[in-house]
Amino acid sequence: MIVVNTEAIPGYRVTEVKGLVQGNTIRAKHLGRDVAAGLKNLVGGELVGYTELLVEARRQALERMLAQAEQLGANAVVNVRFTTSAITQGAAELYSYGTAVVAQEEA
Amino acid sequence: MAFWFQVIPVLVVLVLALFVGTFVERRHFRSLATREAQFRDMLVTDTGRLPVGCAAVPFGLVIGEVVVASDYFKTFVANLKKLVGGELRTFETLMERARREALLRLMERARAMGANRVLNVRFASSNIGGTSRRRKNAAMVEMYAYGTAIYVPEQATS
User: Fold this and answer.
1) Would an 8 Å CB–CB cutoff place B139 in contact with chain A?
2) Nearest residue of A to residue B42 by CA position?
3) How high is the pLDDT of residue B158?
4) Alpha-carbon distance A92 to nearest alpha carbon in chain B (angstroms)
5) What is the ipTM of this complex?
6) A104 has which bridge partners?
7) In CATH, which of 3.20.20.70, 3.40.190.10, 3.40.50.1240, 3.30.110.70 is domain B2-150?
8) What is the pLDDT of residues B10-33, one digit of tens each?
9) Smallest CA–CA separation between A43 and chain B, in Å?
10) DSSP-derived secondary structure for B94-120
């Protein structure tokens, strides 16, 4: 599966457009991480626990989007976009969407 | 005794929210499914390039927006789940409902314009009250979908 956030794939030609595919997830870290992040806020710096949270969420959202694309019979997803929203404190929503297409290698 | 006077109303609201909330959500999902079935032939993409053979009219911005709230029970469950971490499934259905509803309204407006495709779709969301400490139990989400509606005659390719 080719995943790009541009409209075209270099060296490929889009032969069929399947439509919008999307994946979302909302994840939270356990209370211990929230407390640790709260303490870390005092001195500043990277909140490793929350970085991890975003990495996990991004991976899961992307996986779900790709599963949808596969179901449609696409072999590539173009123009991928990510958005996040803060639905509740200490949790992250990650949403990714793109256009599922069938792309063929140019001769 | 005073303890129970505090606990019982909360329990009553929780149980009520569980039943009514589940009913409302199921009804919404059913309505989403039946309305989405009517839009099977409408192609929605988030790419911006105009397809070959695209008509000059109709052409224009279409918008779909919706605000959905989670019920008290689901918010309660999510707040418990936050203690241990992991996926907050009760909120995922909330976001799914908001996105599908916003996209549906966008497609409805596109069809009203006489379009059969929507290009360059983007989503934006904002939270009203859901993240503030004082209104911890009111998770609401405002979802906004926008795109460009166009018409491509059937015989034109890609």
Assistant:
1) yes
2) A19
3) 47
4) 9
5) 0.77
6) A13
7) 3.30.110.70
8) 888 899 989 999 999 999 999 999
9) 23
10) HHHHHHHHHHHHHHHHHHHHT-SEEEE
